[in-house]
Amino acid sequence: MVHERSWSRNLETEPYADDREAIVEDGIGAIERTAEGTHVNLVTHGEQGHPEAYLFPAIEERFGDDVDWEFVERCGCGGYVTRVYV
């Protein structure tokens, strides 16, 4: 299913707390399911640290210049929000 409007993908649930690889895999999948001209907010688990260390390089490698992303904020619950524009 392709999301035709901007949306959020929750990668902050307990299974992601100790599985950085799953965050990257599911984050990439969320971007792939986001329609051109919209964005997806990837909310990553705080236990994995800032997404610049592991998620940003994976996005760059997979999509190159086809997407833009920005770090938005750290949630009050400890997670991190990255917005990816397709």
- Percent helix, as a range, is 25-40%
Helical segment count: 2
Rg, Å, rounded: 12 Å
- CATH architecture annotation: 2-Layer Sandwich
- Mean pLDDT, as a whole number? 94
Shape descriptor: globular
Indicate the proportion of strand residues.
Answer: 25-35%
CATH fold annotation: Translation Initiation Factor IF3
The rounded distance between the terminal residues' Cα atoms is 15 Å
Q: Flag low-confidence runs.
A: none
Q: What structural class is derived from the secondary structure elements?
A: alpha+beta
State the domain count: 1
Indicate the CATH class.
Alpha Beta
Q: Tell how many strands the DSSP assignment holds.
A: 4
Major pleated sheet:
4 strands, mixed
Order of helices and strands: EHEHEE
Strand order of the largest sheet: 1-2-4-3
Notes on the protein architecture:
- The chain is an alpha+beta fold.
- It has a single domain, classed as 2-Layer Sandwich (Translation Initiation Factor IF3), CATH 3.30.110.
- It has helices at 20-32, 55-63, and strands spanning 7-11, 39-44, 68-74, 80-85.
- It has a 4-stranded mixed beta sheet, covered by helices on one side.
- α1 packs parallel to α2 (55-63).
Keywords:
26% helix; 86 residues; alpha+beta
